[in-house]
Amino acid sequence: MRICVFCGSSDGRNGSYREIAHSFGALLAEKGIGLVYGGASIGLMGAVADAAIAAGGEVIGVIPKALADVEVAHATLTDLRVVGTMHERKALMASLSDAFVALPGGIGTLEELFEVWTWAQLGVHPKPCALLNVEGFFDKLVEFLDMVRDEKFLRPMHRDMLIVEQDGNALLDAFDAYVPPKTTKWITKDTV
User: Fold this and answer.
1) Domain-located, residue 124
2) Total structural domains within the chain
3) Is residue 45 part of a domain?
């Protein structure tokens, strides 16, 4: 099994974000789960990869050529794949992964997670998607998503597809128990 981790290329202002990224990378390796991520050696991306490598895990990085220098491509991964575009990056990361999780990060992190979650909603893949909500980082996002559901722009079953956990072990347990909904989104007069 491989899990794709989306997270920041910076550490953020709270040092516990880096600690959680490090702990999650180590946890994946300890459980024999491969890590797929954005290929950088800096920020939370570097922390999750460094920890997985140190614990003997498989780590696959995928980085666009234009970002290889800016995000400082990681030099000691199991496998570093340099691609042409961000679209290629996301498609390859998705094809290499069995599940997706976002740790703290910025708009790129959210965009990556929302894209794979949308694909799951549309039935493009049956893979689970999650937020590792450390230090309440995603609390307001979760509140917003619940409001989107309540306003009938998101079906409850599709909102429930996004797993939210505060602990890495609980998140992995939720992945193991995940069953995708049988009904995917389709376009009708009443889409929610």
Assistant:
1) yes
2) 1
3) yes
Domain region containing 90: 2-172
Neighbours of 159 (CB within 10 A): 16
CATH number at 86 reads 3.40.50.450
Please give the helix or strand (H or E) that residue 109 lies within, else none.
helix 107-121
Condensed to tens digits (0 to 9), the pLDDT of residues 119-171 reads 999 989 999 999 999 999 999 999 999 999 999 999 999 999 999 999 999 99
How far is the CA of 52 from the CAs of 18, 49, 93, 136, in angstroms?
A: 13, 5, 17, 24
Domain membership flag for residue 88? yes
Residues 23 and 122: their CA atoms lie apart, in Å, by 32
Residue 30 falls within a domain, yes or no?
A: yes
Q: In angstroms, what CA-CA distances link 82 with 25, 27, 49, 65, 108?
A: 21, 26, 16, 6, 18
Q: What is the pTM of this model?
A: 0.93
What is the bridge-based pairing of β-strands 59-64 and 99-102? unpaired
Distance between CA atoms of residues 126 and 120, nearest Å: 6
How far is the C-alpha of 128 from the C-alpha of 180, rounded, in Å?
Answer: 7
